[in-house]
Structures are given as structure tokens and as C-alpha cells.
Amino acid sequence: MNKCYDMVIVGAGPGGLAAAITADKLGLSTLVVDEQPEPGGQLYRSIERSLPENADTLGKDYLAGKQLVESFRASGITYLPNNSVWNIDNALNVDLISAGIPRRVRGRRLLFSVGAKERPVPIPNWTLPGVMGAAAADILFKSADMVPEGPVVLAGSGPLLLLVACHLVDNGVKISAMVETAGLKDYFKAMAYLPGALCQSRYLLKGLQMRLKLKRAGVPLYTGCRDLAVLGKNQAEGLAFTCRGKLLKMAAAKVLLHEGVVPNLRFSRLLNCEHEWYDPQRYWRPALDRWGRTSVPGVSVAGDAGGINGGAAAQIAGHIAAIDTACSLEVFTETERDRLAQPYLKNAHREKLIRPFIDHVFPPSRQALVPPDDETIVCRCEELTAGRIRDAIAKGARHPAQVKGRTRAGMGPCQGRMCGATIAEIIAERYSLDITQVGTLRVRPPLQPLSIEQLANPALGEKNE
């Protein structure tokens, strides 16, 4: 028999840790599986090793994760770091691989709390050395105490772009410019959601403080920018863009791009959970009820994998999912579940009030969604350009899978995670379709490359207790 747990949690970020702590307190046998060597996820990455001198730079929101991780470490939860999930079947068997060795566990209930991923920004020359995602730069700082050598240009849209810029300023990195694709019209569109945002005014205040910090540091700010392109032939040398009808060029040794984050849907797609379209940020998310349940029995989602709401909301969602899981396993009644979850449900609603405002202030740019330049790389794994994608569409491909069959887009190591959304947007534009009519690439196992030897390993059989 494979080892069976009451609750298997995939992801050791804020949502997964909170769920595990609550599940353990409720007496559930709980397993947490995570790809990283330490708990914390991307938000609280390397929190146990964070340097004291970086406390002011990383801020209170980051340091709040230390107590969460400490509570997790002090519990009786089984924890498997450095383990990647490569398959999950309908019986809720979870296939893992660590150091090349596969194993299998089973959960009576599953919770995915795998967070978000940075949206690709396919602009001309975005694959050059010296170009990276702003979120990746933030991870580098948290995990290795490293920052890119300046001068740096930051470009795109989203609150994370501001946060990373502030981290760079605090570390003495010269910023040539902040180039934002969001503009004044986006703020006007967001005004309808300001009353709700005022209920979470601390987030608004934090945003204003970051803006003020960058202004005091003398960082040039350009808003409503279009036609972004990385300068350079063999490596990044700066950024060109259009602002108020003028073509500008900013020299830089590094270019950090960011157009928001989107839910990580690998596992919910693999199990064919129902998904819904969220238009303000142009992404799919699992269709969830108030408890975080998906359309597949026994499977729940907590945190940004179910829609981008931030770390605090992820923790709350984790607690709620664990309480509901205990109820579904008949640890207590629905009446008791509702009583225990009531304060979390109230706080979950409150935390989400800020999101419509943020999502309308920082929409992804059209250029990031549908690259206008045919020479721009869309599929990095296969080095396929937007022109190649459009050519396949012109020859009759009306679904991302058909583009995949004609071009090999999405057949590389990332399995379409970097290019799938862009392909769908290009199809929608070409045929004037609503994006929900286009479809998505199918997620199939293995979720990462495996050898035949690994697949045939007897560790997937009865030896794995």
C-alpha cells in the first residue's frame, strides 16, 4: 500500500503552511510537499535565513512569515521539501520525484497551494542576457542577498514592480527609469472600486509610500508607455519605448520586466477542474466555492493558485480549506465547521476588497498579451516567433493545441507555461473571438521531464510505505 494521509498539501507557501497548521491542530494526518528546500513559498522565500540587516528593506509583510514558518516547524506535520509533483490521478494518488527517485503518496483530500507565476512579457529582445523578470530579481534578493548591477530599467505594470524598485533603491542600485505601461486612464477606470479599496487603506498607504520613496530617490517615472523593446544585440543595453508620442531610449545594464502574476494552474488543469475567466487581469482561475473546493470532489485550492489576492488572503484561505477538509472527513459537523470558519470567512471577504482596484489600476499591457512584432520570440523553448504562430493560425489553426501540432509551440521543457496564454490571445485577436472561446493547451503528465528508468522505478509500488 502507498502511504495515505488525510490531507496532502502541495505547496509550502503562506496558504499551504496555514492549512497544514490548522489541519494538524484538528487531528488530521497531514503531508506537505514542496519543490523548494525550505518552507515559505515565493512570498516568504528563505525567511529562516534572512539577514537581520535586510529587515528594513524586506519590510513587515515579509517578516510576518517567520512566525508562520516557526509554527509549521513546531508541528507534527510530515514535510517533504525538494519534491516535485509530476502526476496526480483521479484516485488522488500523488506521484513525486526527488533527487531522481520517484515515490507515491495518497491523500483522502488534496489541497493545491502552489501560488502564482510571473506573466511572460514577450517584447522584442526579451530573451537577451541581462533581461529578467522583476519577480525573479526579488527572489534572487531574498534567497541569495543579490541584486542586479546597475544601471537598471524596470518596465511593465503591477505593484510588484514598485516593490522591487524600492528594494533596489534600498540596496544602492542606480535605476535609470521606471517605465510603466499603466497610465492615467487606468486610474480613472479603477475609481469605481475605490470605496472598497478604502476598507483596506493600509495597502493604499503602502503604495503611496513606495511611490514617494522612488520620487525622493530621483527615479525617473514614465507612465502610459507603449512599444517597449529591449536594446542590444548580444546582451541587454537598455530599453526603447514610446511615451506621449515620443520615442525614448534608456541605457541600462539590466532590464527587469513585469506585467503582473497569474495563478499556477498546472495541477487544477491536470485534474480537469472547472476554470473561469477573470478579465481585468486576463487570466484563468479555478472555479471555487467559499471553502476553496474545486469542481473535482476532494480537491481544493488556497492562495494565489485560485486567483491573485496576496499573502494575507492566502493564509486565510488555507485555514478555511483545512477546516472544511476536517468537516468533509467527519471530524465534526457542518454547524461546527461554520462556527470555526466564520471569522476567517469574514476576513477573507475583507482582504479581497482591495483587489478590484489594484487589478484595474495595473492591467497587463496589450503588447504583453499580443506581441505586435512578428520577430518577437513567443515560445522560448522552441524559439518560435509571433510571426510563426500567426502563420500557423493563418493556415487554419484555431486552437492552441492545433498551433502546437503545427509549430511545436508548448512542446519544450516548460510545456506551454510560458507561451500558452500568448498563443491563445493571438488566436482570439486573429479571429475576433472572446478568449473563452479559444481554449487552452492541455496539461498532461509528466509535469516535468522524466526518464523511462524513473517511470519504471519500483518505488512507485508497494516498497514505498
Provide the fold topology.
Elements: E1 3-10, H1 14-25, E2 30-33, H2 55-63, H3 65-73, E3 78-80, E4 84-88, E5 93-98, E6 101-112, E7 116-118, E8 131-133, H4 134-144, E9 152-157, H5 159-170, E10 175-180, H6 184-190, H7 194-198, H8 201-216, E11 221-222, E12 226-231, E13 238-243, E14 246-251, E15 254-259, E16 261-263, H9 266-270, E17 275-278, E18 283-286, E19 299-301, H10 311-328, H11 334-351, H12 355-361, H13 366-369, E20 377-379, E21 384-385, H14 386-394, H15 400-407, H16 420-431, H17 452-455
Describe this structure in words.
With 465 residues, this protein is of the alpha/beta class. It has 17 helices and 21 strands. Strands 1, 2, 3, 4, 5, 6 and 19 form a seven-stranded mixed sheet that branches. Helix 1 (14-25) crosses helix 3, helix 5 crosses helix 8 and helix 10 (311-328) runs antiparallel to helix 11 (334-351). The radius of gyration is 22 Å and the shape is globular.
Structural class: alpha/beta
Strand content: 15-25%
Percent in helix:
25-40%
User: What kind of sheet is the major sheet?
Assistant: 7 strands, mixed
**Mean pLDDT, nearest integer?**
94
Number of strands: 21
Question: What descriptors fit this protein?
Answer:
465 residues, alpha/beta, five-stranded parallel sheet, 21 strands, globular, disordered C terminus
